[in-house]
Design the sequence.
């Protein structure tokens, strides 16, 4: 455990942070050192903070986070040193899937506020040098969207072809698997027109028909609306699924186990992205990232190879999908995944680096250890990984405090349609509900969606009302106010490493080389750029472990470590992280 003695690293940090507040997102240091780097882009150098608006800060006591709540915390966001905020959907929505079912793409959810609040938020972020990335959900809309109301009203309605319909006189549709449906069936029979509609996600999320040019133009118009307001980028939700072979061929048995292969490579996917680039994206200095990017680095490259004029960076799932949530996953295998992706993108294209998001459990619970003796160190170690890899870091709200899985015991505590419908599915099949609930404690998305822990007052200072989902009981110790006061907290370590990344372009652009690849406990790598070389050593285990890199650390300078007394050699303390300049 840490002592309260402040080592030089922390003192140096305090001084440098004090000076950092007046710097622009891309520091002058970064500019000077990176001038000779080809292909520089603001979004490669940015640190993106993913903010789940429902759970960040509630301003009106209804128990749901909102835009005014975020506005009240803009100075906190600024204090983190991040460059951009990615906001999960804030549009009008009946919220069957917490905003990923949009009923009006041009208005703000009443739960979150008004368009005036949005404009004020955007302005407040920009005044602080922080960009805003919006979530765009256009594989599907809400079933309450006016387009769908029209579409389902008659077979001859002009909006009929905005969605995928299968007329019942053709017989049962070709089976399609659904992510959220209780019966895993992606076709839903709709009485008014005696036809089935397609929904890869929940029944309340009908898939839009991208093969219809009119629909595509509607989407581009909507994207321009937000860009003309000044937003700085888009995260394209489930975008790899948009193009469908509308002859709906039969897929081989078991295809759902390899769903990305079948759903993620539609016949016109890349034509549509290129069209979107021509019509919209290329006209603005923005960043774009598609959620998911096929099933291999080669697939992903197609989305982001600059010569193809598609999206800015790839966000693949092989990293977070690795090991199937096993707590004792095999570290060498994980290293291989990240190393393979890095080398595939070495000469072109760009990756995102993340360990958590709103569809994942909390990173420290998933990838390291959230028990009290280890939580702090383990959180900082994982943060070190995210901030020292090549690619744009996506950092999920609350991870900067070391927030952990809530691990609900009862199905009644869950709010997420995915868990609730899966529970119903298991129940229908007379499956093992106990085992299901036990597994959800590890993997459920609600683990990562609990309210931000601001302080130790009621509801962690998130809301004066009853929060829409329970607050993690550890808020009395894990909260922003108490971490502000502790220079060695997870929060202050986050600020430190953000600053370090900004001061060292090698951490953004430098070549990554994996060392000691078979070491079962330590992840070791170097980053190198223009003669500058850093070494990162991360102990992923709860026991001391020794790296064998062949590098003489006696001549190396320690830049940052997560322990108050960092180890001197290659033997690291549990969950220790160190960064050296060689
Ligand atoms: C994406 C979102 C997820 C949502 C799904 C359907 O995977 O990240 O939260 O449930 O799409 O929109």
Sequence:
């Amino acid at each position: 455990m840490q002592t309260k003695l402040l080592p030089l690293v922390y003192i140096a940090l305090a001084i440098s942070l004090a000076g950092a507040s007046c710097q622009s997102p891309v520091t002058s240091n970064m500019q000077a050192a990176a001038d000779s780097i080809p292909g520089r882009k603001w979004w490669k150098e940015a640190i993106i903070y993913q903010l789940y608006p429902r759970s960040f800060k509630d301003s009106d006591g209804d128990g749901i986070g909102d835009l005014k709540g975020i506005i009240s915390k803009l100075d906190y966001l600024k204090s983190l040193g991040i460059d951009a905020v990615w906001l999960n959907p804030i549009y009008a929505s009946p919220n069957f899937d917490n905003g990923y079912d949009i009923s009006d793409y041009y208005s703000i959810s009443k739960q979150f506020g008004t368009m005036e609040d949005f404009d004020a938020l955007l302005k407040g972020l920009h005044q602080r040098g922080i960009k805003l990335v919006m979530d765009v959900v256009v594989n599907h809309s809400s079933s309450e969207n006016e387009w769908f109301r029209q579409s389902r009203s008659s077979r001859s309605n002009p909006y009929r072809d905005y969605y995928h319909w299968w007329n019942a006189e053709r017989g049962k549709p070709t089976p399609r698997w659904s992510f959220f449906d209780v019966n895993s069936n992606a076709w839903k029979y709709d009485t008014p027109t005696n036809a089935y509609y397609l929904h890869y996600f929940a029944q309340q999320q009908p898939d839009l028909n991208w093969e219809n040019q009119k629909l595509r133009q509607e989407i581009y118009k909507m994207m321009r609306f937000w860009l003309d307001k000044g937003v700085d980028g888009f995260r394209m939700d489930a975008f790899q699924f948009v193009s469908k072979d509308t002859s709906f061929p039969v897929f081989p048995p078991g295809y759902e186990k390899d769903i990305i292969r079948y759903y993620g490579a539609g016949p016109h996917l890349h034509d549509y992205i290129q069209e979107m680039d021509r019509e919209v994206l290329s006209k603005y200095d923005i960043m774009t990232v598609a959620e998911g990017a096929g099933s291999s680095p080669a697939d992903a490259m197609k989305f982001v190879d600059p010569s193809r004029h598609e999206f800015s960076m790839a966000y693949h799932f092989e990293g977070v999908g690795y090991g199937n949530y096993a707590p004792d996953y095999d570290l060498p295998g994980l290293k291989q995944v990240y190393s393979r992706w890095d080398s595939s993108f070495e000469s072109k294209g760009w990756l995102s680096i993340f360990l958590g998001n709103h569809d994942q459990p909390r990173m420290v619970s998933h990838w390291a250890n959230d028990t009290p003796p280890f939580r702090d160190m383990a959180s900082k170690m994982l943060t070190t990984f995210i901030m020292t890899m090549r690619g744009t870091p996506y950092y999920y709200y609350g991870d900067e405090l070391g927030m952990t899985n809530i691990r609900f015991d009862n199905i009644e505590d869950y709010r997420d349609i995915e868990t609730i419908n899966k529970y119903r599915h298991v129940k229908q099949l007379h499956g093992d509900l106990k085992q299901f609930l036990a597994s959800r404690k590890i993997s459920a998305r609600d683990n990562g969606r609990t309210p931000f822990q601001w302080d130790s007052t009621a509801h962690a200072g998130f809301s004066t009302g009853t929060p829409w989902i329970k607050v993690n009981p550890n808020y009395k110790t894990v909260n922003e106010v108490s971490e502000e006061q502790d220079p060695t907290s997870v929060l202050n370590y986050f600020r430190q490493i953000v600053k370090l990344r900004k001061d060292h372009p090698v951490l953004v652009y430098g070549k990554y080389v994996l060392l000691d690849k078979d070491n079962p406990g330590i992840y070791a790598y170097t980053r190198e750029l223009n003669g500058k070389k850093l070494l990162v050593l991360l102990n992923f285990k709860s026991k001391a472990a020794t790296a064998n890199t062949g590098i003489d650390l006696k001549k190396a300078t320690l830049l940052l470590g997560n322990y108050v007394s960092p180890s001197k050699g290659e033997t690291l303390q549990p969950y220790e992280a160190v960064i050296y300049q060689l």
User: Anything to note?
Assistant: The CA atoms of residues 57 and 69 lie 5 Å apart. The pocket of alpha-D-glucopyranose is lined by residues 97, 100, 137, 201, 237-238, 291, 358-359 (CB under 6 Å). The longest strand covers residues 522-529.
